[in-house]
Design a protein that fits this description.
Strand order of the largest sheet: 1-2
Number of domains: 1
Radius of gyration: 18 Å
Distance between the termini: 36 Å
Helix content: 55-70%
Number of helices: 17
Bound molecules: protoporphyrin IX containing FE
Order of helices and strands: HHHHHHEEHHHHHHHHHHH
Shape: globular
Largest sheet: 2 strands, antiparallel
């Protein structure tokens, strides 16, 4: 780690021609929401922060849904993106305390804040690798990573823990999955929740307006429960599932493969207002007058 390979030109390119714009605000990130929520909560400091400072047990998905527009704003807000990033950082100044076993935590501790961001970079890359027909070249994978570093820079939090390149990111990702993540009450609660029908979603800011009329229908919520669980558990690194003994069968894997392939083959037929998250859609409209 240490010196960053990303330079000012990456920051300049962080617009409509970037790979980050192409993938970070794509509504297919919804298939990764459960996975990144779990990976964040497995970090002891994030679990402690969320349990002490949010309405987690009443509505475990609320934090993710409420934060998403501004997280994407730090990518898509154009001239205002840096300001959005700083607002996100400042929101976390008071999220600090001592966890149940006596460890101090602060959301803005660089290693903690960066892990949350690392899961968003993972999310953008996984959208392509698993839910799209495009295959990233090594150069594109590196570019997407460096653009994610420029995204992180907009939060104005210390870059000390940020790996210099995609290969170093992988090493650090694997180390955290093996040495830092842990099973805790917040994670157990989410794993249990994944067996119930989906919570009401119509009024979440991240819900594309076209889907709102059907989002809360009890049949839809029940039908989507199993694929959501499969996507959430199946998206976890296999090493994490094994470490925490999270059940995953060959039949689950077949279902996940079907979901991924179906999404990859059919996604382009959906209208842009569904394919893009509202904040990303606004960015495309502003910059190009049309969303791709
Ligand atoms: C890249 C890193 C992070 C980003 C981009 C981010 C983003 C956000 C945003 C935008 C909100 C505001 C939600 C709203 O509008 O109400 C929020 C809330 C929150 N964040 Fe973060 N966050 C990050 C890291 C963390 C970390 C590391 C922790 C915990 C240690 C944390 C804990 C919380 C909590 C507890 C809330 C309050 C939720 C509530 O009001 O119920 N966040 N986050």
């Amino acid at each position: 780690m240490g010196a960053l390979a990303a330079d000012a030109t990456v920051e300049e390119r962080l617009g409509p021609s970037s790979l980050l714009w192409r993938y970070a605000g794509d509504t297919r990130i919804a298939f990764l929401g459960g996975t990144i929520g779990l990976l964040q909560l497995m970090h002891p400091a994030i679990a402690a922060g969320v349990l002490e400072h949010s309405n987690f047990f009443e509505d475990p998905a609320d934090r993710v849904f409420r934060s998403l527009p501004r997280i994407l704003g730090a990518v898509y807000d154009g001239d205002a993106a840096a300001e959005t990033g700083l607002q996100v950082r400042d929101f976390h100044r008071s999220i600090r305390g001592v966890d149940p076993v006596g460890r101090r935590y602060h959301a803005l501790d660089p290693a903690t804040f960066w892990w949350a961001h690392a899961t968003f970079q993972f999310m953008a890359e996984q959208v392509v690798d698993r839910f799209d027909r495009h295959r990233l070249t090594d150069a594109e994978r590196e570019q997407l990573y460096q653009e994610g570093v420029a995204w992180y820079r907009r939060y104005g939090v210390s870059e000390r823990p940020v790996p210099a390149d995609r290969m170093a990111f992988q090493a650090e990702w694997d180390r955290i999955c093996t040495e830092v993540l842990e099973m805790n009450d917040a994670v157990r609660f989410v794993l249990d929740t994944l067996h119930a029908p989906l919570p009401p979603m119509r009024d979440r800011a991240a819900m594309p307006s076209l889907l709102r009329p059907v989002a809360d229908h009890p049949v839809v919520r029940r039908l989507l429960a199993r694929p959501s669980r499969i996507a959430a558990i199946g998206g976890l690194p296999a090493s994490v599932r094994e470490r925490f003994d999270i059940r995953w069968t060959a039949a689950d894997q077949v279902q996940l493969d079907v979901i991924e392939r179906t999404v990859a083959l059919t996604w382009r037929r959906l209208p842009p207002t569904v394919r893009w998250q509202p904040r990303a859609y606004e960015g495309w409209q502003r910059e190009l007058g049309v969303a791709p």
